[in-house]
Amino acid sequence: MISKIFFWGYRFVIKHVWILFVAGMVTAMMAGSAIAGPGGSPQFGVGQIDNSTDRFYLRNSLDAGQPDLNFKFSVGIVGALPLVGDWDGNGTMTPGFYDPATSRFYLRNSQDAGQPDENFKFSVGISGVVPVVGDWNDDNNWTVGLYDPVGERFYLRNSLSAGLPDFNFAFNIGVSGIVPFAGDFDGNGTFTIGTFDPMTKRFWLSNTNATGPVAATYVFSVGVATVVPIMGDWDNNGTYTPGLNDEATDRFYLRNANNAGLPDAGNFKFSVGIVGTTGTAGVWSP
Hints:
Layout: E1 45-50, E2 55-59, E3 69-72, E4 81-85, E5 94-99, E6 104-107, E7 118-121, E8 130-134, E9 143-148, E10 153-156, E11 167-170, E12 179-183, E13 192-197, E14 202-205, E15 216-219, E16 228-229, E17 243-246, E18 251-254, E19 266-269, E20 277-282
Antiparallel strand pairs: 1-2, 1-20, 2-3, 4-5, 5-6, 6-7, 8-9, 9-10, 10-11, 12-13, 13-14, 14-15, 16-17, 17-18, 18-19
């Protein structure tokens, strides 16, 4: 499997077009019966994905240690990109894949080996698009989207099925090589989009899924050139804030505010001893 994804987060290289799965990529806390964090909300953790074996290693807390979950989910397609999201709205993030060659999504509702629970094609007829995932309409069910890096345009769909985009809009920053992601940046329950410049480590956030003004922009840097963005609700207050993952060292740098500053939510290494893994984050445990 290709190793350049992270979601959100998630990252995928058209160097550097990365995707957060989750964080995309992005991962989020959702209504459900997940582990309670300090604020009484579901607790985020981190993970590593081995792209050569399609094995997921997930940890239920934001610190160093051993994986709490370890499983393989594969669709047997070379070049498929791993995703994580809450596809069934139960509050727990589970795996998926996107095949860029066919524009097909393969999503599973449990953290184990098996067949995809959702298997559908979502295409906008543009080559080179990359996937984004999130809850675009605040119904607790994550769905999918595509980002066109050439046109800086997002195409988002509210159901896990083939069809037309429910949202189709440009978010123009005018910077080449930016990384798309999604998250709930204002705590209203709806995921919106953002972008990251890997050269300057600048984030741009939008609070609407429409063409419009930037809601926030800031540089969050830890002095490491090769970091990639990862978004999450690290302090369980309902709002997504930034993180950075250094894949060379498997180190995560997390921040509790959408502004410049130090990684106050976490600075730790989570490694499974495998070269070329992709970092991710999410609520893993029921």
